[in-house]
Amino acid sequence: MADVARLAGVSSQTVSRVSNGHPTVVETTRQQVLAAMRQLGYRPNSAARALRYGQFHTIGVILFNLSSTGNSRTVEAIATHAATEGYAITLIPLGAPTQDNVLGAFTRMGELAVDGVIVIIEVHLLDTNTVVLPPGVHAVVVDSDAGDRHCVVDTDQADGARQAVRHLLDLGHRTVWHVAGPVESFAGERRTAAWRAALEAYGRPVPPIERGDWSAESGYRAGLRLAEQPDCTAVFTANDQMALGVLRALHERGREVPAQVSVVGFDDVADTSAYLPPLTTVHQDFAEVGRRCVQALLRQIRSGPAEPGTDLVPTRLVVRASTAPPP
């Protein structure tokens, strides 16, 4: 640092302020110091700075798996928005959705020196009714029912499902069949509950649920069963991958989409506009979920604990070519 100060013609304190991004440094002086750093190959010691100021500029992310569309895109968005704020992320996947594993991950995060943690909890825990986080930790929870105890960010799953059902009923369909997600999924649970509530609110019959596991293969199996139902003219699937399987099954059974059966998905993944036919679906704004997670956590880091509550990110229906009035 002394060599940088000598070359730039400033004090060591000024070099320290530039290294720490202090806003009071005059821009010409800042550029002068940065040029000296580049010339000498000087790199500030981030570990020492973290110990001195008590911040590591690292966000921990705990989740149960990276295989699902929602989780992978949410993590990507968190990493992107954290980087714009000058933060890196440390990722810890858990082997099983248990309270013990969650607490163990928090212990590990403490050893890795993070400023706060984002926990993506998309399924019910196996060993307790709801997640419990260690006290005094800056934390944001994604996709959970813990809004009465923690700061939660989630997609408005219920409104998305309502939009899908309303769209199909407005087209003239008598009712809407449903391919649901796994029973342990928070998102799947909310979408199914909203589907049922919307049909009941319109006074329409509620068909039996077909259950899938988010995969296209499970959607295909459900679609084969639905194809045998002559009164099935509209299907709301809980995600786009299962909708893809439903489309294949209906095609194989000679049920034309949308002339004979309309299909709506959920997520709006990148390839849905290339499905045959292009899929009508509910758009989830994963980038906004990630941004709100990072901003909520940074507010806690900078200003202290947040009040419990759930911040819902709106959804919107994207109408394409897989829906039409009933035959």
TrEMBL record:
Signal peptide: none annotated. SUPFAM superfamilies: lambda repressor-like DNA-binding domains, Periplasmic binding protein-like I. The keyword Amino-acid biosynthesis does not apply. Pfam families: LacI, Peripla_BP_3. It comes from the Bacteria. PROSITE patterns: HTH_LACI_2. The keyword Transcription regulation applies. InterPro entries: HTH_LacI (IPR000843), LacI/GalR-like_sensor (IPR046335), Lambda_DNA-bd_dom_sf (IPR010982), Peripla_BP_I (IPR028082). GO terms for molecular function: DNA-binding transcription factor activity; transcription cis-regulatory region binding. Residues 1-53 form the HTH lacI-type domain. Gene3D superfamilies: 3.40.50.2300, lambda repressor-like DNA-binding domains (1.10.260.40). Keywords: DNA-binding, Transcription, Transcription regulation. PANTHER family: LACI-RELATED TRANSCRIPTIONAL REPRESSOR, LACTOSE OPERON REPRESSOR. This is LacI family DNA-binding transcriptional regulator. It comes from Micromonospora craniellae.
